Structure formats: C-alpha cells, structure tokens
Task: structure prediction
Amino acid sequence: MCRSIYLALILVSVCWATTRATTVPGDRMIAMDPAAAGRFAGLALKCLHAEYPNHISHTMDGDADARPPHALNPAFYGCYDWHSDVHGHWLLVRLVRLLPDAPFAPMARAELARSFTAENIAGEAAYLQRADRASFERPYGLAWLLQLSAELRRWDDPQAREWVNALRPLETEAAARLKGWVPKLHYPIRIGEHDQTAFSFGLMWD
Result:
C-alpha cells in the first residue's frame, strides 16, 4: 500500500505542470475535479506521518546515528522516504490553498501544523547541516523543499505565513547546499532517476 501511495505521489509530481496550466489570474483553479482533489489529499494524509515502511538514505558514523526515522527527520519522516514526504506536504498545501473549503481542508491543516513546528524544522536543519550529508536529497528532495516553501509564500493565509517562518531555516540551508553544488556541475545529469537535473532545476527556478 505504501508503495502505491509513493507511485501516486510521483503522478502528482508529474501533474504539477498540468495544474499550473489550469489556473487563471488570481490563481483560481478552473480544471481540478473536487473528487480527484479529495482522492489526492487522502493519499497524502494517509502517509504523511506513516513512519513505516521507510527507505532511509543515511550515513552513520557511530552507534548514536542509528535512530528511527522520526528522530532523524522530525518533520518529513513519512511516505516511505524524505522527498516523497516533502512533496506530500506540498500537495496538501497546494490543494488547501486552491480549495480552502474542501472537506479535507481541516484535517490537512492539522497534519501540516503537526509537521511545521519550529522544533521539527530545527531538527531537520541540524540533520542537513552535518558535513557528511552534503549530498542528502540533492537535487530532487531539496528542490521539492524549495517548491514547498514557494507554495506556502503564495498562500495569503495567517497560518501559512507562520509555516513560512517556521520552514525558513531549513529552506535557507537547502538553498545554500544547492548554490554550493551547482557551480561544480560540468554537465547535466540525464540518467533518468532522482538525481537527474532537469526536473529539479525546473522546481528550483520556480
């Protein structure tokens, strides 16, 4: 089931470009079917804080580094892996921003608030700042984190503004990691997997 949710969220990532094309000035969505939106929201809500099964890409320097996912990444430990959980959060933010009166909106807000605390984000930033994690989720996951931050900034909502402030330390760290990495690239990565650069650079550009 978790694998199915993971694949569904990949489809949402692909549909991201389509949802951009279905908006008009003022960002009013004109083509999203409410039933489909509810199904997508349900997938994200089911896995956002589901810790297991979990695929961790994690380098350990000693016994103290052997910790469960929620301790390593207190905000983004669900949905099978880190980047899937990040774009699961993006999905909920986007859906609630565009469909604020949808039936799933109250639960989505509650689950987002559960993640976007200063303590959780500080834990995420501390994880990313370790020298031996310079390549963690680069570029795909970090690009989705920047896209999540951008989505929150587009949302004219008091709670969203609180979340923007909470997320800022992690956003700043992710941006710094990417800025330090991009000049070192001698050619684009086109292997067709998560570390290929085209899709991630599109997210970063936005």
User: Anything to note?
Assistant: The longest strand covers residues 23-24. The chain has nine helices and two strands. Strands lie at 23-24, 28-29. The radius of gyration is 17 Å.
